[in-house]
Amino acid sequence: MFVSSRIAAMTESATLAVGAKAAAARAKGHDVIAFAMGEPDFDTPSNIKHAAIAALEKGMTKYAPTPGDKLAREAIARKLTEENGIETSFEQVTVTAGAKHAIYMALQAIVEPGRGDEVLLPTPAWVSYKALVELAGAKCVEIAGSVENGFRITPTQLAAAVTPRTIGIVWNSPSNPCGIAYPASEVRALCDVLAKCDRIAVISDEIYEKLIYPEISPGLVHFSPGSVATLRDRTITINGMSKSYAMTGWRIGYMAAPRSMASELIKLQGQMTNSIPSFFYPAIVEALTNSAAGVESMRVKFASRARLMKAELDRVPGFVTVTPNAAFYAFPDVSAHFGKTTPAGVRIASAQGFADALLNEAHVAVVPGEDFGECARGNIRFSFACSDENIVKGIARVRGWVATLA
């Protein structure tokens, strides 16, 4: 059967692929310590679960409007207005089947296939961004953040990457895979560059916004590009319930867009998925209005794990690790070990090779850096969405295995 070239050219998600490899190793009886999946190990707070259960028992089992229940959309709009400084009405909000769905729709809406459009992507960046940009019909232009600058790009780099074909940028802070958040002053400086290019749409993925650690980087706060007056009318803000509320399996994302764009996105959604399950909407309202204490409890624990992960990784010879101050990832450069040979006789030539050998020989699962951008080919990603015990035990295994490389 014929498969279209744009689908055939796509690669499997690297994070999901590693998860599958770890599961296969466990099925063979190996004690695998996994640092691969970007999924909180906490359960969804009970008040959020009970809101969905109550809605289900009340009979909320029918179709909902395509963009979602009005009360949920109003709660999202209120949150964006009051917390993020993005003046939003419920008509500008649509609830999606996860944030990835929202990103897909946003790119489909701004890209004109065959026109030669370019979309900027600060890297290292989540593995799906580039694939989704290319699936929409645009060229993905990577802007590499350096280890020396904490993986953050500069206004000079951004300005140099803009061409007459640039129609958008996918922005992600706090960042997956870097585990860093940009200081508000640096976001404003980048927004100043974008403000001078009125044809560029901003797709701002803020899924990790509540997982920021001023305990590690004093004064660090989240800043939304959509709050900047000069960008408000061309910014699509994307978020969801997965990370901050430990609701990954619920698949609830949302986005807010300028009014003219919002109606087009809702039209597209109506031809794709329509609404998410009706009984999830009261859970969204409960999460956004009555769950701050639960979110803060998880945030504090993640901050503690960030410190622990950095301390443990710093004890691994040859690893160079930027201090994680957001999300739940660390992204060390391991290229000092390229060219070495493992105890099983495998010569390590890449991050992929390092990750594969680490899993096969030490039974530790990490995500190789290649799919996070050209600048990340020497890195591997560790998720610290796991217990302190697993962090200490897992990195001890890594340290012991690295010591055997020759």
Task: Give structural notes.
The protein has helices at residues 5-8, 14-27, 46-57, 70-84, 99-110, 127-136, 155-161, 184-195, 259-270, 281-290, 292-313, 351-362, 388-402, and strands at residues 33-34, 93-96, 118-123, 139-144, 166-172, 201-205, 235-240, 253-256, 329-330, 364-365, 367-368, 380-383. With 406 residues, the chain is of the alpha/beta class. The protein has 2 domains: 5-43 and 293-402, Aspartate Aminotransferase, domain 1 (Alpha-Beta Complex); 62-290, Aspartate Aminotransferase, domain 2, CATH 3.40.640. The N and C termini lie far apart (47 Å). The mean pLDDT is 96.
How would you summarize this macromolecular structure in one to three sentences?
This protein is an alpha/beta fold. The protein has helices at residues 5-8, 14-27, 46-57, 70-84, 99-110, 127-136, 155-161, 184-195, 259-270, 281-290, 292-313, 351-362, 388-402, and strands spanning 33-34, 93-96, 118-123, 139-144, 166-172, 201-205, 235-240, 253-256, 329-330, 364-365, 367-368, 380-383.
Second-tier CATH architecture of the largest domain:
3-Layer(aba) Sandwich
Quaternary organisation: single chain
| Number of individual domains | 2
Structural class: alpha/beta
- Helical amount among residues, as a percent range? 25-40%
Radius of gyration: 21 Å
Largest sheet composition:
7 strands, mixed
CATH class of the largest domain: Alpha Beta
In CATH, the homologous superfamily of the largest domain goes by the name: Type I PLP-dependent aspartate aminotransferase-like (Major domain)
The name of the CATH topology of the largest domain is Aspartate Aminotransferase, domain 2
Beta-strand segment tally: 12
What is the overall number of helices? 13
Portion in beta strands: 5-15%
Major sheet strand order: 2-8-7-6-5-3-4
Which stretches are poorly predicted, pLDDT < 50 over at least 5 residues?
none
